[in-house]
C-alpha cells in the first residue's frame, strides 16, 4: 500500500531530474530548441484548423442535403436545421480560435 503513495513522487522525480541535469550542464548538442518546438506546434495547429473547417463544411453540407430530402417532414427538417446551425457555430468557433491565436502570436512574437 505504501508503494502506491510513493509512485507519483517517483514519476515526478524521474521527469524532473533530467531537466535539472540538462540545465546544469548547458545545452546538449542536437537538442531541441524552442524555435523547433514552436514550428512543430504551428504546423499541428494549421492542420487542426484545416481539418476542423473541413469537418464543419461537411456537417453543413450533410445538413443541407438532409433538409432538401426531408420531404416536408417537420421532424426531419428540424434535425437538418439543427445540424446546419451546429456546423455554422462550429465553423465560427474554429475561425475565431484561429484569429485569437494569430493575434496572440503577432502580439507576443
How would the blueprint of this fold be written?
Blueprint: H1 2-25, H2 34-68, H3 74-108
Helix pairs in contact: 2-3
Order of helices and strands: HHH
Distance between the termini: 49 Å
Q: What's the total number of strands?
A: 0
Residue share in β-strands: under 5%
With helices defined by DSSP (H or I, 4 residues minimum), what is the helix count? 3
Low-confidence parts, pLDDT < 50 over ≥5 residues?
none
What are the main properties of this structure?
single chain; 109 residues; mainly alpha; 3 helices; 86% helix; 0% strand; elongated
Structure description:
The chain starts with a helix and ends with a helix. The radius of gyration is 24 Å and the shape is elongated. The mean pLDDT is 81. It has one domain (31-108). The chain has 109 residues and is an all-alpha fold. The longest helix is centred in the middle third of the chain and has 35 residues, at 34-68. Helices cover 86% and strands 0% of the residues. α2 (34-68) packs antiparallel against α3. The chain has helices at 2-25, 34-68, 74-108.
